[in-house]
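Subject — a protein and its fold
Encoding — discrete vocabulary of local shapes:
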Amino acid sequence: MLFTVLFQKARSVPYLSPIFTRMLAAFLAIFLSTAGATATPFYPLSLELKGEGHPIVVLIHGNGSNASAWNNIEPQIRSMGVQTVVYDRVILDPHPMWEGGYAVEHEAKDLITALSDLADNAPIILVAHSYGGYIASLLVEELENVQGIVFVDAGIPQDMSAELVDFVLAEYTPRFEALEKAAPELAKTVIPVIKAYPATAQRMGSVTIPQHLPVIDIVAETSWVKDAKVVAQMRKAHADFTAASPNRISVFAKGSGHNVMQDKPEYVIEAIKRIVEQVRGK
């Protein structure tokens, strides 16, 4: 398995280069989903706003990933005449990340605060990948100017089942020690999120995405979850979610793995274009 190979290589070198760390982060996003700087008291955050026009398209990456996950499609999104926002956690901070204990509400609050300072009530479209879907779902509760969502093989409140929590904890907890040795700074951001999955699931149980909100839910052909029973439960949750409102559309990304924006970017670009047109047509 590639995950094991990466960690074996990491143990053999005394220092992880920034390139390897970014590669490892991108890889973890597959398996875990799990130009100004703005920071809040919760967690360090660096936002980059590009382009001109409305709406503002906010690209939310998954756990263990970073803004580079969107490099392949961000220029094409911006060419639609919109502004784009990508962000990174500042993982090389001298202070321990989330030392008070990770909570998905705090991560969402950090982004909400930054966007509130940035957006000035402009219409926002959220594009969320993997674990970022849970963060996006919380943003909808707080930001009245969110006018559409594109989920990119992302988590939604309804798919955060006890079975998914059990799978994530069983699959990744045994790898914590290896990750801490291979990429200690990255481990500070990834491990707390995984440990908090039970609490995150509980919080997601109280989240409701309004039925009037336009949503395109892209589901990859190959899931990041390797348990067939859990995959079936997740797909039913997504099917039920889109069936619950005529404003929600399900898109099956044939031939794609978890990173749809890299494997089959056309699905993501077309979905964003469709939501942008809807928002502009209001």
About this structure: The chain has one domain: 2-280. The beta strands are 45-51, 56-60, 83-89, 124-129, 146-152, 215-220, 248-253.
